[in-house]
Amino acid sequence: MPIDDLVVEAPAIHITMGDMEANYQTMLEATKKAAEKGVDLIAFPEMATCGYAVGDDLEMVRFLENNKKVVEKLAEETKDLDIAIALGFVDFDKKKTGHDGKVRRYNAAAVLQKGEIKGTIYKHHLPNYTLFDEKRWFTPGEMLLNRPIAIDIRGKQVRLGVGICEDKWVEDYEEMRKQDLKFGENVNLPKQYKEQGADLLVWLNASPFHAGKFIKIETINRARVAETGLPLVDVNFVGIGDNTYDLIGFSGESAVLDAKGEYITTTRPWEVESAIARINLKTGEGKELQGNGKPKTILGGKDFIAKYVDQVIDALVYMAGEYVRQSPCTGVLESMSGGIDSSVGTAIAALAQRKGFFDWVDAYTFPTQYNTETTKGIAFKVAENLGIDLKVIPIQNRFVQATKDYARIVMEPLDYALAEEQYKTEGVKAFYGAFNNKVTPENIQARIRSEWMKVLSNEFPGLEFVNPNKDERRQGYTTINGDMAGGLAVLGDLDKWLVRAVASRINEREGKEIIPRSIIYNVNPTAELSDEQNPEKGGGDPFDYVVLGMILDNYTFARKDVPEIVEDFKRKQLNAHYYPVDMKEIYTKFTVDQFEQMTQQYLTKNEIMRYKGVVFPLAPKVTRRALGFELRTPVTSNYFRSAERRKQEGFY
After folding, report:
1. DSSP secondary structure letters along 203-249
2. What's 577-613 look like in SS3?
3. Which residues pair with 240 in a beta bridge?
């Protein structure tokens, strides 16, 4: 007869990428505490030994051996405890090679009890989309070789259906079966376990965060339980990793579900804590012993956007804070202009400091003749509201001198002499005619600011946050050695509308106006690099950010070409995703020809500026598709630049 009082623990432990000793100690301590509480089974996440985002370190045999020692040491150190352990690790076979010619590796899970490895299973479905690249590192396990793993609980056998992440996410099983016949008639691993007599599903995950993802996780979990009628222990970890381009967050949110698919207990997002439940395997019912009850991160209803933005803020604070904590730095350096982006970036830094990730935030402002009294005043107000000292370093003289020096190189002596005379009345603009591109003198300011920030970063052990947003990033409206040059691009995965929404929501959560409403809703977004961008005179950035974001999202997420996006506009069926905008405004503001011209312009610029993405700093991934590793489009592509020729030749 099945046991009627199995106590299971689904912890959300902290995993440090590559630090196997730290991860071992974390699991050992958690196991000892669980045993003291009378827990029968504790589960740790996918690749808990070494961390999920360790990249090509998996090619090193010594790395693999150290990771496997964690499993062996944990089995040995817990042999006298009355508890079973499920954990993820990387198994390998030195006698065989993988497709890369190196030691064959498997994304694996083991169950330990009384000092023994009771069984091992291998992940079959290896994800290879967006940020995932598992087929690069692993060989898929043969599905039919995975069997329930038996453990002994108080003299009774409990059969565990242990799986790893993607093996519960694949949903088109019939199609998968047709493509994968060598692995048998059934590629639905949870269902296979049910047919093989499993009593409980135990799923180990390394599931990267993006806002709104928990809806999908909940749906998948309920579906697998509905198909099998088996309770589910589902674990994920808390921590950060990266893929060289994107900073990836893992939010935890471990859970236990009963046999009806109802959540018994959960852990809170971004919190290192445990969910513990008692499960009756005879009836499939369960009772929460410790945890956060049912999920509380579900999106929907009138406050959908607020919930979505809350998830973004919490993720940014944790990921940015944890990144600094793991760095050699003790604080954060911010450059504040008084604009919306630097205000939000500084607010995220201050919120992370408040949570204890690091000790201090220092902010600096670097005014020139183009910084208005409005934005300078806002910078001081935001700093004051956040309790941060804002230090002023004027760079007008350096900007003027640098502009004159560069002009001297490209101007004929007589022209330069004339410009020197005009400088007395016209100021530095007298030298602008020396440059073929008006962006040249504008970028001088950004580079001087960046130079100062590097000096400060050298002198004080602080990590520099930079604040280009996702829309600016896609349009190249950033300076490589200026506002792009820093330690973390904290807003690099946020569209402009989301930056504004985060600012507004921070005010609501704090119960006071941290970031003045004027720059959220009234002041035109502007880099203040020239007279034309003066917000006090109605100037601003050269984009309609609402339309820009809409077009780029349809390109990035839906992967639509210009004609398809324009056709959606004609039919008034543009995909708005999470955009909290009135679509009628877009449809009435532009003609079809105007909209097509803007679409072509923005996507062409996006293509031209891809080279900047190669050198963009790490940016925390918070949306469904980040721009670094997740959208791998070639720098050398000329697809959109050749659009007119395609149109003329009938490709449209």
Report:
1. EE------TTHHHHHHHHHHHHHHHH---EEEE--EEEEE-SSEEEE
2. CCCCCCHHHHHHHCCHHHHHHHHHHHHHHHHHCHHHH
3. 249
- Classified as helix, coil or strand, 23 is helix
The residues pairing with 464 across neighbouring beta strands, listed in sequence order, are 333
- For the cut 50, the answer to whether the pLDDT of residue 129 exceeds it is yes
Nearest-angstrom CA–CA distance, 59 and 169: 26
Is the CB of residue 204 less than 8 Å from the CB of residue 46? yes
d(CA 10, CA 445): 52
291 residue type, one letter? G
Using an 8 Å Cβ cutoff, are 297 and 311 in contact? yes
- Tell me the chain's radius of gyration from C-alpha atoms: 28
CA 286 – CA 42 distance, rounded (Å): 16
- Mean pLDDT is highest, among 155-164, 578-587, 629-638, for 155-164
Spatial distance between the Cα atoms of 255 and 222, rounded to a whole number of angstroms: 12
Strand, helix or coil for residue 84: strand
Alpha-carbon distance of 277 to 7, in angstroms, equals 6
Reduce the DSSP state of residue 171 to 3 states and report it. Answer: coil
- Global pTM reads 0.93
pLDDT averaged over the chain?
90
Closest C-alpha among 208, 241, 200, 245 to residue 43: 200
- Give me 569's structure tokens: 């506009």
**279 Ramachandran zone, left/alpha/beta (phi>0; psi -120 to 50):** beta
| Predicted confidence (pLDDT) per residue in 184-217, tens digit | 445 789 999 999 999 999 999 999 999 989 889 9
Q: Which strand ranges, in their side-by-side order, compose the sheet holding 619-620? A: 238-242, 246-251, 619-620
